[in-house]
Predict the structure.
Amino acid sequence: MAFFIVRRLLLVIPLLVGITFVSFIVISLAPGGPLDFLEAENPDLSPEVKRQLTELYGLDKPLIVQYGNWLMRVARLDFGRSFLPDGRPVLAKIGERMPVTLALNIIELLIIVVVAVPIGVLSATRQYSVFDKITTIFVFVGFATPDFWLALLLMSLFGAQLGWLPISGLRHINWEYLSFWRQQWDLVSHLLLPITVATFGGLAGFSRYMRQSMLEVIRQDYVQTARAKGLSEEVVIGKHALRNALLPVVTILGLSLPGLIGGSVIIESVFAIPGMGQLMVQSIYARDYPVVMGNLVIVAFLTLIANLFADLAYGLVDPRIRFGRRRGR
Amino acid sequence: MVAFWRTFARNRLAVIGGVVVAILVVFAVAAPALAPWDPNKHDTRRILAPPSAQHWMGTDQLGRDVFSRVLYGARVSLAVGFVSVGIATLIGVLLGAAAGYHGAVVDGVIMRLVDLMLVFPRFFLLLAVLAFLKPSIWTIMVVIGLTGWMSVARLVRAEFLTLREREFVIWSESVGASAARIVFRHILPNALAPVLVAMTLGIPAAILMESGLSFLGLGVQPPHATWGNILTDGKDSLEIAWWMTVYPGLAILITVLSYNLLGEGIRDALDPRLRQSRVGRVIRLGG
């Protein structure tokens, strides 16, 4: 296991460098360099801002030197300062929003797993039943529903028409004056809609994968053997089949993390949740490039770490991985 | 081929999906002829009018006909879907073929690049790139294409890895066929089935992506009508003009649903084996 962990950790290093490289290519994409582009967009760009940008990215030096300098700064987690009048360090701005986005994504992931696994198992064990057919319809509709549209419809229904739930932000304006339990309920009520929307597509996907994986496993010989031994159906499905069916789903879970995190952009923008996704969109509107770049690098770092955890979890549940055989890609 | 059609035709949902996709393409191409109104014509006397015989899907804040705008929006969605998936497929096939055919170092480098690209949450990467470029339909197409080739590359590589060990390839090598000839004449045609499926399933993903970007105001710019920016306009008057939100959203849902049904149908008909394989697991989660 130790060997597995070390090897997996070593693989992270080139990816970390790679992330900074891809991000650097993004900055240098603008035709004629970022400065020309900025000036065209905003004719009264002050010489001060120009000087800041030139200094931050070393724009007067050759590309490879620019990248080297920038990499050195990123290694010290120095992403420069925001272009907004507050001029705060980029890292501080992102840091205060990171917990929100992380918490939301973790809650979403937990809900997806807890709900999708039983749905998948039930529709696999009752293939072609009414339940299976209804979930199949849900899966296809879930895949095809744009999240922002679902968000608008739910906001309109539960927020405006029925008035049951708040539709934006995380807290009521009088939050500080509420009693403790009221505060908790206030937070939950603010999260209900965004989390419903964010988990909708994921639920559809995972229940589908779970169903497929379960269908494959149920046909295996060892499941028949377990039945033949006279084990109850609950034990056969719940223990023998489920454990094996979950393995590929753990991989899918890891692979789908970037998609889930990317979804935060829309969810946070629509529901005005102060997370990294909202910051990203706001910074683009405000042409606050240091924040855009910092956000991109940090969100990729976070995804990389999350993937690492998913892989380690996979190693924990599957002894074949732990003992050195490489998983096929 | 006959077997393909027979299996495909038996899948009722896939056929429906295919028919709807065909109708959508016709609508998009013929939008100028079909649209009852000019999609950009303001009419101050009919602002936010509910659906009626003249305006089937009502009008927006500027009195523009929503039905005509949804029709024109179909053009943007389908164009972005086809072109961006075309770009992604081209890159994916070339890199996947190189990785699978050459193996060794080439394979290692390309696959690490795939891993690297997959670490970026796609929506964040799209937004960062768009922050530095002027938003236009072409930028959107290219950017969505450039960030979406990885699954195709993996699929093609996997096919190449197995195909290059097959007798007909080894035979071609032994009679001295050039590498290019082997790759493009012998291996690639046999590896296209999963690519076709990935393309059909990639188009709806690109359409969702574009509508999300347009919704945020970072996609195709107004006054060009896209499903995403009609929804942005509708957001502000959702309480008084539901039609501006419901119809374009339904248009996206129906389009994406039809492509997905068609794609799954093609996959099942091409090769029952693929049903269980990676293609079936093209990941799409919340963008």
User: Anything to note?
Assistant: Chain A is about 75% helix and 0% strand. Chain A touches chain B through 65 residues (CB under 8 Å). The two ends of chain A are 20 Å apart (CA to CA).
